[in-house]
Amino acid sequence: MRKFNKAVVAVVLATSLTAMTVNATDIDTLREQKAAAQSEVNSLQAQLDEVVANLSQLENDLIAKGEEIEEAQEDLDAAIELEEAQRAAMALRIKYMYESGKPSLVTAVLESDDVADALNKAEYAAGISSYDRGKVQEYLNTQEEIKTLKAKLETEQAEMESLQAEYEQKQEDLGVMLADAEAEVADLGSQLQAAIAAEQERQRQAAAAAAAAAAGNGGSSSSGSTANTGGGTVNTGGSSGGGSTAAPSIPQSSGKGGTIVAAAYSQIGVPYVWGGTTPGVGLDCSGLTQYCYRMAGISIPRTSGAQLAGGTIVSDPQPGDICWTPGHVAIYIGGGQMIEAQQTGVPVKVSAVRVTYYVRY
Question: Which partner for 66 in 136, 269, 274, 278 could form a disulfide, CB atoms 3.0-4.6 Å apart?
Fold first, then answer.
């Protein structure tokens, strides 16, 4: 009987060890695959972070470029106004010289006391005309310079907007790739946990069988108790790993939220202008949110990145919160909708929510 039991133990242990060797190899392979997938996730995340940083910097550059274009337009308007005024003044002087006050330059010279006086008068009269012509030409030159500068700025702005579109597309593509890679890591993690659990179960069964063969049925009960305790430890660990704690809800004043939303509604139809901060005239996305919050007595930063950094990310959006995506912000108005200054050529409007984070102040 003892020889039979020893033979059983030997067979069980041999079988168990073989299974353990195969499964240990599977586990090592899964670990390597998961590590490789995680490395890919880290690489994609780094690329995505770089794109988001570039988008944030590009937003700042576009705002600055929009302000430069606006300033150039103001300078051009002023130059045109001065040129028109100088033309009008020159016309009045010519009319006075040649029609009203002095019939001709010859008359002015002939009435002079001497040759020197005549020359002085002639030079004075000619000087006035030359001055006026010079000033008009000066303003015309200034206009041309400003027009050239404005065209250059607008070209640069168009190039940056094109680059922004490329960054946004790259961000979207990287987001999809990152989600796929993260899903692969999660799947490999699940497979790894299942393989480890199966291996632990095989080891438990092998130990129980060996104990039963060596000590009889009484030892089997004891071993089973030990195994159940081990199983409980694994399950507890899984529960701990799967748990999550939701971000605490930060209450939002309904009064201020309502004011912010009302301010956003008041700007619907206003043109989109890069660098625009003037309500009713021209706004960009962060100019709109900054204005709406100012109407509620809340001071927030100028750019979308700074607005994200200065606020609190929340998971329970309330009307008046900021809808933030890289390089863009809008005002959440409830019901899955937001008011945004979207892009050049599109006035402020109501849109379906597009959001990475909800931000509250």
Answer: 274
Q: Computed from CA positions of residues 92, 98, 101, 105, in that sequence, does the dihedral angle turn out positive or negative? A: positive
> Residue 128 corresponds to which amino acid?
I
Residues 6+ apart with CB under 8 A from 260: 292, 293, 295, 296, 298, 319, 320, 331
- Beta strand residue intervals within the chain, DSSP E: 277-278, 282-283, 312-314, 322-325, 328-334, 337-340, 349-352, 357-360
The answer to whether the CB of 328 falls within 8 A of the CB of 276 is no
Provide the residue type at 328 as one letter.
Answer: H
* Cut 0.85: pTM above it: no
CA distances, 236 to each of 107, 169, 174, 243 (Å): 114, 43, 36, 11
Residues 189-239 pLDDT 10s? 888 788 878 877 887 888 888 888 877 655 444 443 333 333 333 333 333
Tell me what the mean pLDDT of segment 309-337 comes to: 95
Instruction: Provide the CA 10 distance to its chain's centre, in angstroms.
Output: 65
Any bridge partners for residue 312, and if so which?
A: 360
